[in-house]
Amino acid sequence: MTFTASDVSSLAQSLRDWEHAEYGACAFVAIACAGEYIADFTNLLTAGDERRKRRLAKRSTLLLIISLAFELFCLVQTNSLSGQLIGSLSDKATNADAKAQSALDKSNVADGKAEQANKKAEGALSSLTEAESDAGKAQTLASSALGAATAASIRAGKAETSLGKAESEAKDAESSASSALTLSREAKEIADRLKWRTLTVQQQSDIVDGLSGFSGHPEVDVSSYGMDGEGALLATEIMSVIHRGTGTMPIDSRVSKIVTGSFEMGVTIRGPLIEMPFMKRLQYLLQTVGKVDSVFVNPPIPRFGSVIGGNATMGGTAMMSGGGGGGGTVPATIPLFGTVSIFVGLKPIPELSTITP
Asked: Are residues 248 and 322 in the same domain?
């Protein structure tokens, strides 16, 4: 389905609204976790009264369930709106291709008309020459020859005028075709950037070959954000190529962390100095062979707000660290020895305001 510029703007605003609602749900999740922590481990707000503690724990649990359910609903809405935007861009790309092909066809027709006009002009000039020759040979036919020559001159003038118009139309058609092809390329580029990150079978095979020099490498940890299906898919493919390339199965930490305040973008590879050859090789293969954007090695660490991870459940044993709104980064401390960890963050995409309707 193709959307108008106002439809795209409306979808973009709706997407932002649902994202804000999702952030709000995350905030209520953090508040509910804080309430359970206070009820289970402190005497704040309850003055040590067990009945008040149980009441606070129950209300916090209900708030946590409601907040998580609403957050999931918001996530479904944002995914649906993103899908509509991507579909609209693909339709626009297809329409642009069709218009470009039509413009090229019109250009070919104009070229054919110009060629016919040239042939008519040559025929008119030939008739004029024959008429002048006949006039020189037979003075008695001078009047009729002069009339034929005048008619031929008029036809030649009309043919030249038609030729000029045909050439002008051909230039206009070429300009329209060029503009249509440019719009088609831009629309396809944006649609490609909004697609899910994934490795083709051939790319996975080439990356496995590129990691053959690290056979028997110690296991690495591969993780991604909770409820990020796109990131979990790419993390699964990275685990597969590392397993097949090194012979060692990575630690599976996919879909294991929910944060507030900040997100990591792209693929982050962290590890000690002794693992730098392996990390740089994997970064090179993902970027050049896998065509994965934004692959970093030991970048600064973002400050998160609240973090829920590990074996967290809705039964009151959720683990929580940090607080506030997050934001900013801190330099990464790089040890000499340790385990390599790979985190698949959110896919970097262009700002919606830069998408041309």
From this structure: yes
319 — pLDDT class (breaks 50, 70, 90)? low
d(CA 193, CA 110): 37
What domain range is 49 assigned to? 1-195
Are both 130 and 228 inside the same structural domain? no
d(CA 227, CA 233): 11
87 contacts 59 by C-beta, under 8 angstroms: no
pTM, two decimals, is 0.46
> Where is the domain boundary, 195, 210, 234?
195
CA–CA separation, 100 and 216 (whole Å): 53
Give dist(CA 214, CA 211) in Å, integer: 6
The model's pLDDT over 242-268, given as tens digits with 9 standing for 90+, comes to 999 999 999 999 998 888 777 889 999
Same domain, 165 and 211: no
Distance CA 240, CA 249 (A): 8
